[in-house]
Each structure stands twice: as C-alpha cells, then as structure tokens.
Design goal:
The protein is α/β, with parallel strands linked by helices and about 425 residues long. About 40% of the residues lie in helices and about 15% in strands. The strands form two sheets. Strands 6, 7, 8, 9, 10, 11 and 12 form a seven-stranded mixed sheet that branches. A five-stranded parallel sheet has the order 2-3-4-1-5. It is elongated. The termini are far apart.
Length: about 425
C-alpha cells in the first residue's frame, strides 16, 4: 500500500512538478501550530467537511468506493477559497495557482491527467465558473461524470504510440458561486456530488470582522502547511493493518461500513452515503487521533442537510415534478371545468395542450415529450415504466402508455398524467 508523494512518485510534466513541489517537498510551521489554527474553523460545517474531504481522498481505494466531488459554493465574500486553502494545507502549500490549488481554466483532459498523477491525494480547483467559459464545456453533468470515472481517456504520445491509461482514486474539491446540479441534472451526476452552501464561514470571532479573520487564516495556512498529511497517512496505514472483530474485515473498513449503514437510514442514496461515509471516517480520525476527541464526532443528522434524497437524485422523479409544475404554469393551454360545482368551462384561447378532468391530465404526446426534452428530460420507456409503477401515468388496458383522446371533436395521442393533488 503506497501513498504518493510519501512513498515516491515520478514527475512527468511541468504542472506535475509544480504540484509535487507544493506537496511532497514543501513544509512550513509545525503540526501543533496548524492544529491550533484550524480547530476554531471547524465550527462551520462546510469548512469541517472540506477538511474531511481532503483527508478522505486516500481512503477511497482502501475501502473500495468511488471518486466524488465536494463543492463549496456561495456568493463572493463568504470564505470559500480560504476554506479550500485550509483543506489543501493538510498536504502542502495551499497557494492558489502557484501551489497545490489549481485555477480551473485548464481542459477536462488536463484535470483528469493531474488527478491520475495525484492518484490518491485530493484535487483542488478554485472558481468553477472559469470552466464554463471554455469552448469544450458542455455542462456540469458530463464534466463531473467523466472526472469521477477514475480513468484517463486513451491518448497518443509524440511518437504516435498509445499512452498508458492513467487511473485515479481520489476526490475533487472545488469552489464556485453556484451549485453544479440543476433540476435536470442526471441521477449519476447528482450521486457523485456533495454540495455545501457557504455563508459567513469565518464569522467565528465576535470581536473581529469575518473578512479580517479570513485574511488572518489565509496568511496562517500560507505559512503553516504540509505537516498533517504524512502523520495522517501513517495513522490510516495503522488502522488499515489492524483487524476488527469481524472476520475478513480490517478496522478501517469495519468503521466505514458501519458509518455508511447509518447514513443510508437518512433516506439518501447508496452512493451519497458512500461518499459522505468517507468524510465522516476521515473527520473522526482527525478528531480522535489529532484533537484527542475534544469536540463531538459527526452524526448522520449533522450531515443529512448536505445529502440528496433518493427522490432528489432520481431523474424520473424530478422529471415528473417538473412536468406537474409546468402544467400548473400553463393551465391556460388546457380545457377544464372549474368552480364550486364545476359549472364553469375553460377553453384554451390559443394552442391547446390537452384537457384536465378529475385530477388527470390528458396531455398531447408530442407536447409532453417536447416540453420535457427542453429541460433535458427524455421520456423513455424506463421513465414511463417508473411513472406507471408509481401511479403517475395511467396505462391502457393493453398496458400501453399512449391513449387516443379527442379535443374539440378531433383525435389526438396523449399521455394520462395523474396530478399529485387537485390543481384546478
């Protein structure tokens, strides 16, 4: 079990050489000084989880789980970048651009290549919005999905020979002004991402302005870094070598599995629980072995606000919720009866999408598929099947999804969507 750079590493590019200088060959200050600086910052959960994510990266391969992204997001002036610098100072010089932390103006391939070089150490990237301006950028979904696959795309070297495919088992810690997920994000992307909204991260001293505190912290970690990493790795190795009471499991894996099992009870997905479980285990190693348990450990209820529920991650559920809201916003395009006794009749004045009766929407098939597609949802067979199984889509007696309806005496193909409650 090797951990670069502490067990040796090959420098293969100028960028890698700069990063390795920032990590493996760079220390300032002392461990006690670093611990003293960081301890009061941990009262803010986004900062505490950022440090935990930094420490979680080397655990990914050991416990056999997947790479993930941790995003510190929020408006300017709330301490995102300084919190990232604190997390990066675990391993080395946290300077943005000139040290361990990358500016996010490089290509996706360069990001993955550096992650493969780091392998089991975290990747830090500041200001995610700079990627959005790149011509290759196609949205956060494909970007997150590809960087967390753990493999580098096959490429040719200068001699037109196939380069060895790089691999990594690490996490990516980014900052940004906005979340990376949206209402139409794919479930696979949302599963791989933990997002922490940042607000007043350095409002921790009632006698001092938070901006001044942030500047003091940034100055402190620029002058004190690189000491915790080697000692933390040594402790991880020790725990990994220690047997637990369960046959076939070492202590580290046993602790992780138990943590993930508890997180699943919150209603989150398996992958979200797997990622957050890493953060909780890493946080506990720091708390117990370096802070002598002088503050409480994280519980599932503490991190639950940062986890996505199964419904939030499910593309099928989000597509249905979007469609229901979209129908409500466009009631003028439907025929329906209203009033206390349904004595009034509304007819679309322009284009008609269908009609609503007894809380069931008969919506034109082409309109339904078009409106969903415009938000990135595709009503494929799998989604229809899920909707039908949940009682959201009524099928015909022959178990078909499309009905033949009529509007103003004219036939049309439609889906029958069941609304969650009376809407008209």
């Amino acid at each position: 079990m090797n951990f670069a750079p502490y067990d040796g590493i090959a420098v293969i590019s100028e960028e890698n050489e700069r990063v390795i200088r920032a990590i493996g060959q760079s220390k300032q200050g002392s461990l006690d000084e670093w611990l003293k600086t960081v301890r009061p910052l941990l009262v803010k959960m986004p900062t505490r989880l950022a440090v935990a994510a930094s420490l979680a990266a080397p655990l990914i391969q050991l416990v056999g789980t997947l790479p993930f992204v941790y995003l510190l997001w929020g408006s300017t002036g709330h301490g995102k970048t300084v919190a990232m610098m604190v997390a990066a100072s675990v391993w080395g010089n946290p300077e943005v651009g000139g040290g361990y932390v990358q500016t996010m103006g490089s290509t996706k391939n360069a990001t993955i290549s550096l992650a493969c070089f780091l392998h089991g150490l975290p990747y830090f990237g500041d200001e995610a919005k700079t990627i959005e301006a790149q011509p290759w950028f196609k949205g956060w979904d494909p970007f997150i999905y590809e960087i967390t696959e753990g493999t580098e795309r096959g490429r040719l070297d200068t001699d037109m020979k196939q380069r060895e495919t790089g691999r990594h088992k690490t996490c990516f810690i980014f900052t940004g002004e906005n979340p990376m997920t949206s209402s139409n994000s794919g479930g696979g992307t949302a599963n791989r991402l933990i997002e922490a909204k940042c607000k007043n991260l350095f409002d921790i001293n009632p006698e001092k302005d938070q901006q001044a505190v942030a500047k003091d912290v940034a100055r402190a970690v620029r002058n004190c870094y690189g000491f915790l990493g080697p000692k933390y790795i040594a402790k991880v190795k020790e725990l990994y070598a220690r047997e637990s009471d369960e046959q076939g499991k070492n202590m580290l894996v046993k602790i992780y599995d138990d943590t993930v099992a508890d997180l699943r009870k919150t209603g989150t997905t398996d992958k979200q629980a797997a990622a957050m479980g890493l953060l909780m285990v890493a946080d506990d190693i720091l708390r117990v072995y370096f802070y002598q348990s002088d503050y409480a450990g994280l519980q599932p209820k503490d991190v639950a606000p940062f986890l996505k529920s199964k419904n939030e991650v499910s593309t099928d559920v989000r597509a249905y919720n979007y469609l229901v809201n979209h129908i409500n916003e466009n009631l003028d395009k439907f025929e329906f009866k209203y009033g206390k006794n349904k004595e009034n009749h509304h007819y679309p004045s322009n284009k008609s999408w269908g009609k609503i009766e007894n809380n069931v929407v008969q919506i034109n098939k082409d309109v339904c598929e078009r409106e969903l597609a415009q938000k990135g949802f595709y009503l494929n067979h799998s989604m229809k099947d899920t909707w039908a199984s949940r009682g959201w889509l009524i099928t015909t007696s022959g178990n078909r999804y499309v009905y033949s309806g009529s509007m103003n005496g004219k036939p049309f193909s439609c889906y029958k969507i069941v609304l969650p409650q009376a809407n008209v």
